[in-house]
Amino acid sequence: MASKKNLLNECVAEFSGAGLFVVLGAGSIAGLQLAGASYTYWDISIVWGIGIALAIYVTAGVTGAHLNPAVTLAFAVFGNFDKQKIIPYILAQIAGGFAAAAVVYFLYFDLFATKDMATAAVLTTFPKAEISLLRAFMNEFFMSTLLISLIFSLSDDGNGLPRGALTPLLVGFAVAAISAAFGPLTGPAISPARDFGPRLFVWLAGWEGDVMGGGRAVPYVFIPMIAPLLGGLAGAALYIKLIGEPLKRRQAAQQADLPVQEAKGAETEYF
């Protein structure tokens, strides 16, 4: 009974955290596109980053602040996260994104003059018309690879990076930088919860146009769902193989006063 209650509390935290950063990020986009706010793209990227940082501060003590299905899957595969919690966490994160889109739509309701693809892009993501599906997939894959490798780096006590209160800010800055650099190509999504939750709301709210498919031969909805998950796994694997494991071996060698080569058998444990 206690474990079910704990899981419910964790899901509520993931729902709240995902909802918090999406409502701030999507709200800033609505302010720009609907209310004529004088933001730059960098300003919006910073808002997304601040939203992520705040969401981590709010939820880290309960769940470790996954907030993103790609993070949850990567920690389950390469860390010690309970695999039985994968689906509940992901559903909670998607629900948070859905609720955030509903809040933004409600507050900006009078400014949503039409329900077309242009206003759908206020809440969810679509690639530039000039971008092929393959390029869009690779962009989302790369952004997720970069973000998850950075998150694993900041979560690894062995690499000497700052801890405590700085970690959420650093993750937020990472999100802002990645979004500013590559986000204009595809939105960005980076998180399936940030994309699919709002996309589902847009679809159910009766938007006109192909909000699920994006007018592409292959429905675009699958790109921001699959690419970040695979990119997250790649990012975690790359960090562990190229940085995490060598660090563990070096530390084991230093403690034993042995050459690094002789400590290759040292155990590696993450998170």
From TrEMBL:
Location within or outside the cell: Membrane
Transmembrane as UniProt keyword: yes
Molecular function GO labels: glycerol channel activity
Topology of the protein relative to the lipid bilayer: Multi-pass membrane protein
InterPro entries: Aquaporin-like, MIP, MIP/Aquaporin, MIP_CS
Membrane-crossing residue ranges in chain numbering: 12-34, 46-79, 86-108, 133-154, 166-185, 217-240
Keyword line: Membrane, Transmembrane, Transmembrane helix, Transport
GO cellular component: plasma membrane
Family designation: Belongs to the MIP/aquaporin (TC 1.A.8) family.
Protein name: Glycerol uptake facilitator protein
Gene source species: Candidatus Tokpelaia hoelldobleri
Name of the gene encoding the protein in the UniProt record: glpF
